Amino acid sequence: MGGDRTRGVLELHDIQRGVLSPRPTPYAATYILLRIDHPAHGRELMRRASTTVTSAADSISPLGECWVSVAVTYHGLRALGVPQDSLDTFAWEFRQGMAARAKALGDTGPSSPENWEPPLGTPDVHVVLVALAPDGAQLETAVTRARSTFDTLPGVTLIWRQNCHALPTGTEPFGYRDGISNPAVEGSDVPVSNQLEPPLKAGEFVLGYPDELGAVQSPRPEALGRNGTYMAFRKLHQRVAAFRRYLKDNSTSAQDEEMLAAKIMGRWRSGAPLALSPLHDAPDLGADSHRNNTFLYRHDDPAGFTTPGGCHIRRGNPRDASVAGSPRLHRMIRRGTAYGPPLPENVLDDDDADRGLMFAFIGAHPGRQFEFVQSEWMNSGVFFGAGDEQDPIVGSGPDLRDFTIPRRPVRRRLHGLPRFVVTRGGEYCFIPGLRALRWLGDLQE
Known about the structure:
Elements: H1 2-7, H2 17-20, E1 28-36, H3 39-49, E2 67-72, H4 74-80, H5 84-87, H6 92-96, H7 102-105, E3 127-133, H8 136-146, E4 156-165, H9 222-225, E5 229-238, H10 240-249, H11 254-265, H12 283-286, H13 312-316, E6 333-339, E7 356-363, H14 367-378, E8 401-405, E9 412-417, E10 421-431, H15 434-441
Antiparallel strand pairs: 1-3, 1-4, 2-3, 5-7, 5-10, 6-7, 8-9
Helix pairs in contact: 3-15
């Protein structure tokens, strides 16, 4: 093992599978939040979880086709009895918690923590269990078995659950194919989604390995920090009717409406990128995982005439474009799972149903990855010369925002974009390695 550590080879057997592997398709999923009321019972939960979680080296889960991930918040680590000198070595953002970081993340107005769904953002959230399966029946069977890790522990209380699922359309609630872009991680066996992007150093996503700057970050002791990572999960309510109505009200035809939707996202709803199909949708391209993410910007579209610099996917991942800061230092693994019933096709009025995405960021540097992208790229346009313009999809500023579409001879300027996404809550978590789960289980009073 010492040789592997020296060379920085990923110890896949000790990394939770949910860290590196994309979600299955189709899928059913659930988020379960637990509160630890008795440290000894919380530690027993960690011991049991270490035998339930699937590692990145395993193709078969202890729960069959269902994957289970276990994450712990800062308050959860304290409840388990982790010493303060160890807690002090974790990332600052993680220690503060997401509610305390609301201003930096743009969670204001209707998205501010006082409007979050209880118990999200409170000190009661200690453990996050995430399970995914190919369908609801398999998920429930696996969750029933997984409940045995805490159901017999009176000192562990289930305080919240959110079920998620693949929509019948195979898209996220706004109607776009999701889960296309995934960074290549050096040393993993995860398929590359962009053939033109060199793999990123493992330390960008897994603690205890060299990152793009050559640094090695890991909480102490090594038995706790190595092979872990951070997760930010957020419940994002999507105002689907408002989005549809805005597109229709600002289009002259059905074709223009689809083009506007593509310019706002950077992709057609099929998943075909504007970079490879600028004039019309190409569903076959959108469905082709070997081609639908293989493109760059710097030489083919530096000014954003094809893919606007302010569109959602270019803000989230500028690729090789010239922007403030190196895009490779801000790459992150994203997971999105839909929740709630789909709004029926062509309906333009809100039905008051709760629908949206459970969003999860995974990375070793929550500050320069998730928070940087959220504050500097999503909620500001300075990095590419667009002033105070925000992301047209998830921008968190006030209603009546603007969005610019470069074109010749005159750019198109959209006004009055309402807030399409509202944060309903979330938290920063630490995803321990399997050895760390056992270490947490063996803590002494």
